[in-house]
UniProtKB/TrEMBL annotation:
The keyword Mitochondrion does not apply. This is Succinyl-CoA:acetate CoA-transferase. Residues 334-470 form the Acetyl-CoA hydrolase/transferase C-terminal domain. It comes from the Bacteria. GO terms for molecular function: acetate CoA-transferase activity; acetyl-CoA hydrolase activity. Residues 16-223 form the Acetyl-CoA hydrolase/transferase N-terminal domain. Its EC number is 2.8.3.18. It holds the Pfam family AcetylCoA_hydro. CoA binds at G270, V271, G272, N273, V274, I365, N385, G389, K409. Keywords: Transferase.
């Protein structure tokens, strides 16, 4: 790989080296900030070389584990490799790797599950301690030392600013035409010196097209040519299509009621097949002139752009399938001016989500009869992935939806339960629940009215009568406490039954 067209800074071009040499800058006990957001823009070579070093150290009986900070999930060659060699003692703020998940749930790796909008600012506050090394993938290094970001921005700005040492990976797979796709805001400040973020439209530029780095901190530059983790998406199943249909019909109702404009409000959708199915539902709907202010650009958003239904997308990362990545790479210029990638402290910023009036769609593991949502923990204790950005958007959205099939594990688990086993989104933050059974609009309802609506419209018939019986008996048990009635000795009984018998 000749780096003449990718690394044109005279100073940094002298620091080109191998991944193995770059990995030597990381030692036991360090905190390492890494690029990457849902499989896009993660470093492709240095983490593997670091994992090899850790494995050798462990074979000699030496301790070698690090803390790993990122934007969100990365890829098997990062989280998976480092977990396989038992090289992590802490991870934040999100994970998606099964090997790492197992080590978190067995207690080997401490996991800090944080709102994605909080991570950069909490690093700046000093809540996480010093950041020793940043390993950041970019598309190019310009003559003046500015960096052309790649397919994700995430927390890269914060890591480049906070780290004592910086390792850059320049990935030739990332299109050189990505220059101009980014807007990196450098106006953040610590309290009490913060100012309003002057942004009123998803595509408004408020920052720079480039990342900045102090050249004196850059200890190594490594060249790669490797793709992102472009994960295939399952085609929407009947349940996903049903949920998408309910949601799109509800948006039609809100337009007819005059509560949202005909081109909707800026859309946010979480990562996954159900969220992608919602975008497919919008593809065949009548809405045009739409915009998105979200975290990740999945295939569904690319489809809407290609169809002319969606005018523009502001996000922090791509999250495409292999087919979606091929489509984008074939003609990046086709999307320039319609896609803008920002730092996640801006893409997820509560101030901006509220000002823009975002319509948010996110997944959940379970909801209870009063509308509390668990989006992170299976049976109350085992982490799945993390809260991600759902809290950033749900609490501040103009309108939010939480979606899930009504059952899991072939019907042995109900997604609507008497009491959630873990709370990520309280009833106060949840507007609408959607399953393949129907949609429950919870806005303006008391807890018991919410229970009636959720059971009627969202619960599976195999569980609905038992849920009604629970609420009725809870009301009768304590006539003086009927605001949010619970039977405390039964509230988590369905979860206990599953753990004991394998069925709720």
């Amino acid at each position: 790989m000749a780096h003449a067209d990718r690394i044109t800074c005279p100073v940094l071009s002298t620091r080109v080296t191998t991944a193995e040499e770059a990995a030597r800058h990381v030692t036991h006990g360090m905190s390492v900030g890494i690029s990457g957001f849902t499989g896009a823009g993660h470093p492709k070579a240095v983490p593997g070389a670091l994992a090899d070093r850790i494995a050798v150290a462990h074979s000699r009986g030496e301790e070698f584990r690090i803390g790993l900070w990122s934007g969100a999930s990365t890829a098997p060659e990062v989280d998976g490799r480092l977990a396989e060699v038992h090289g992590l003692h802490k991870r934040l703020p999100y994970n998606g790797d099964p090997t790492l998940r197992r080590l978190i749930n067995t207690g080997e790796v401490d996991y800090v599950d944080a709102h994605l909008s909080h991570t950069a600012q909490q690093a700046w506050f000093g809540f996480y301690g010093p950041l020793d090394v940043a390993i950041v993938e970019v598309a190019a290094v310009l003559p003046n030392g500015l960096l052309v970001p790649g397919s994700s921005v995430g927390n890269n700005k914060a890591w480049l600013e906070r780290a004592e040492k910086v390792v850059l990976e320049v990935n030739h797979w990332q299109p050189r035409d990505l220059e101009g796709f980014h807007d990196v805001y450098y106006g953040t400040a610590l309290p009490p010196h913060r100012l309003p973020i002057q942004m009123t439209h998803p595509m408004q530029r408020i920052g720079d097209p480039y990342l900045r780095v102090d050249p004196a901190k850059v200890v190594a530059v490594v060249e790669t040519n490797a793709p992102d983790r472009n994960s295939p998406l399952n085609p929407p199943d009947d349940a996903s299509r049903d949920m998408a249909g309910f949601l799109v019909d509800f948006l039609r109702h809100e337009v007819a009621a005059g509560r949202i404009p005909p081109n909707l409000l800026p859309l946010q959708s979480g990562v996954g097949n159900v969220a992608n199915a919602v975008m497919e539902g919008l593809l065949t709907a009548e809405f045009t002139g739409m915009t998105a202010f979200t975290e990740v650009i999945q295939d569904g958003l690319l489809d809407l752009l290609d169809a002319g239904k969606l005018d523009a997308v502001s996000a922090t990362s791509f999250g495409l399938s292999e087919d979606g990545a091929r489509r984008f790479l074939a003609d990046p210029g086709h999307y320039k001016g319609r896609i803008l990638l920002r730092s996640q402290e801006i893409s997820n910023h509560p101030e901006l989500v509220r000002r823009l009036g975002v319509i948010a769609v996110n997944g959940m593991i379970e909801a209870d009869v009063y509308g509390n949502v668990n989006s992170t923990h299976v049976m109350g204790s085992a982490i799945m992935n993390g809260i991600g950005g759902s809290g950033d958007f749900a609490r501040n959205a103009y309108l939010n939806f939480f979606v899930s099939p009504s059952t899991a594990k072939r019907g042995s688990i109900s997604s609507v339960v008497p009491m959630v086993s873990h709370v990520d989104h309280t009833e106060h933050d949840v507007h609408v629940l959607v399953t393949e059974r129907g949609l429950a609009d919870l806005r303006g309802l008391s807890p018991t009215d919410r229970a009636d609506r959720i059971i009627e419209h969202c619960a599976h018939p195999d569980y609905a009568d038992r849920l009604r019986d629970y609420v009725d008996r809870a009301k009768a048990a304590r006539p003086e406490a009927r605001h949010t009635p619970h039977l405390l000795d039964e509230a988590l009984g369905w979860h206990r039954a599953f753990l004991r018998d394998g069925h709720m």
